[in-house]
Amino acid sequence: MRILVVEDEKKVAAFIKRGLEQESYAVDIAHDGKEGELYAETNEYDVIILDIMLPGKSGLEVLKGLKEKGIKAPVLLLTARDSVEDKVEGLNLGADDYLTKPFAFEELLARLRALMRRGTYTTPVLKFADLSLDPVTRKARRGDKEVELTVKEYALLEYLLRNPNRVLSRTVIAEHVWDQTFDSETNVVDVYINHLRNKLDKDFPKKLIHTVRGVGYVLKED
Hints:
By secondary structure, the protein is of the alpha/beta class. It has two domains: 2-118, Response regulator (Rossmann fold, 3-Layer(aba) Sandwich), CATH 3.40.50.2300; 126-219, Orthogonal Bundle (Arc Repressor Mutant, subunit A), CATH 1.10.10. Helices cover 40% and strands 22% of the residues. The chain has eight helices and twelve strands. It has helices at residues 10-22, 33-42, 59-68, 84-92, 105-118, 151-161, 170-177, 188-200; strands at residues 2-6, 26-30, 47-51, 75-79, 97-100, 126-128, 131-134, 139-142, 145-147, 168-169, 209-212, 216-219. The strands form three sheets. Strands 2-1-3-4-5 form a five-stranded parallel β-sheet, with helices on both faces. Strands 6-7-8-9 form a four-stranded antiparallel β-sheet, covered by helices on one side. A three-stranded antiparallel β-sheet has the order 10-12-11. The longest helix has 14 residues, at 105-118. The protein is elongated. The protein starts with a strand and ends with a strand.
């Protein structure tokens, strides 16, 4: 899943990005309100983490603009302010939750997972045919076989399982599994698809990961 972090404190932004990437998320960073608004309007994100105090344009102004433009990604506000008025204003403008600085990273993770459960990510265990993936334990199974996955293999499989029977282009896959610095000229998507095939399809007569020539890949039954 892909997350946008709009945070002007570079150390805080780097701390959040590092932690989320270790949890298999693709993370884009913007350091001011105008840049964050542009990212949110031009890319598809599963969650937006938005600081209130930003240069260029405040987080609340960005939030208001995104909601007016119909951006549906849930928004978690970060604020150094602990006043009830600030929190109420943010929630009234369309924020889904807020977190007061300083915060523990585990609390940030818990709030992100709660936002995803409220939205389109409601299934605790992702299943397709005889393939399953538990987002809590990060364990994958194909039939009776447990499969060990690397961080990127997990992120790629999760994205495929959340979009079964949908043809996904290499570009779309890259945008959700890697960040905006991804080099679209590389064959890394194909490499990781092959890793998953070797782990999930190789020993089974029914193949689930299929190539769509000239486009990308699809998770479907034969």
